[in-house]
Amino acid sequence: MPRMGRQDSECSTSPLDPDMSKTDYREPSCALSRVCMTVFCVVLLVCSLAAAVGLVCTWLSFSQKIANLKRDYEKFDELQGWERNSENISALVDEALQKYLAERDHVEVGPPLPSAWASGRDRPMAHLTGNPEPNHYPKREENEVVKIRTWETEHGLATLANGMEYNRGNLVIPADGLYYVYSQLSYRFRNDLPEDSDKEERVFQIIHYTYRRNSYPEPKQIMKTAKSTCWSKRVEFGLYTSFQGGVFQLQKGNRVWVSVSNAPLICFDETSSFFGAFMLY
User: Fold this and answer.
1) Which of 56, 59, 200, 280 fits a 20 to 30 Å CA distance from 91?
2) Together in a domain, 98 and 151
3) Count: domains in the chain
4) pTM above 0.70, yes or no
5) pLDDT tens-place values along the chain, 281 residues long
6) How far is the C-alpha of 276 from the C-alpha of 158, rounded, in Å?
7) For residue 190, what are the β-bridge partners?
8) Rounded to an integer, what distance in angstroms lies between the CA atom of residue 122 and that of residue 162?
9) Same domain, 100 and 157
């Protein structure tokens, strides 16, 4: 029995402390929880950062697309605006043209031109020049008006084209239309009086006419230039140039010519005296 008591004493152990027992088993569990919580927070933070980066990238991409769409819309709007402006300009041009045509219709311009004269290159024209050789006009009364019948039509600067005809001083109009008619005459007077002569200086009336004849028997004066001039005894020559021009409604078959007073005084050089007409439309 004493041995048994000794064995009991040797084999017996002191009872375990309940608190100590609980502490030994709970400490590993708390550490694991902290680790898990830390890992979870790190993962959550990484995911949040990734989500934030994704949102930023998405926002930047979306902003770029919005900017591109806005730029494309502005270009489209500008294109539409240009098209609208083009349409407005075209409408204004059409309106101005219609207004011009309406106003032109109120102007009496005679019958329409034949189709043969529609092209500008084919419009009738003539430029006749002075021909000094045959112009030996007999001396007449100084103020007597005579018709110039000896214009040059072929040589030098002279031109007669596209249906325009010439007949003894007359330009014969080949088609109805508006024509510009012009003529220039240069006067050159040689002074035969000596400087010490007792005679008075001579006074000349220089009158330059342009006539038109249509179906009526009497010609119609369409232009006139007149001047009374006096050349001094102190100069050898006296010079004067008379030019006239105008736009007239002429009809097929009309005749136009030039008449002058004091014809012997005219200098019939081709660059000094000339006569012409050409169709405007």
Assistant:
1) 280
2) no
3) 2
4) no
5) 444 444 444 444 445 454 444 444 455 567 777 888 888 888 888 888 888 888 888 878 877 878 887 777 676 666 565 555 566 666 777 777 677 666 655 444 444 545 444 455 689 999 999 987 755 565 655 568 889 988 999 899 999 999 999 998 999 999 999 999 999 999 887 666 555 555 556 677 789 999 999 877 789 999 999 887 766 666 666 788 899 999 999 999 999 999 998 888 888 889 999 999 999 98
6) 9
7) 237
8) 6
9) no
Strand pairing category for 170-172 and 203-213: unpaired
> Which of these, 250, 183, 263, 182, lies nearest to 213 by C-alpha position?
250
Whether 5 is covered by a domain: the verdict is no
Q: Which helix (H) or strand (E) holds 40?
A: helix 18-105
Residues 6+ apart with CB under 8 A from 63: none
How many Å is the Cα radius of gyration of the chain?
A: 57
Residue 67 gets the label, from left (phi > 0), alpha (psi -120 to 50) or beta, of alpha
Range of the domain at 103: 26-107
Whether residue 180 is found in the same domain as residue 127: yes
The C-alpha angle with vertex 18 and arms to 15 and 19, in degrees rounded to 5, equals: 135
Residues 131 and 267: their CA atoms lie apart, in Å, by 9
Residue 180 and residue 85 share a domain:
no
Residue 63 is encoded by which pair of tokens?
A: 């902003």
Strands (E), the chain: 125-129, 145-147, 159-161, 165-167, 170-172, 177-190, 203-213, 220-230, 237-250, 255-261, 274-279
DSSP assignment letter at 239 = E
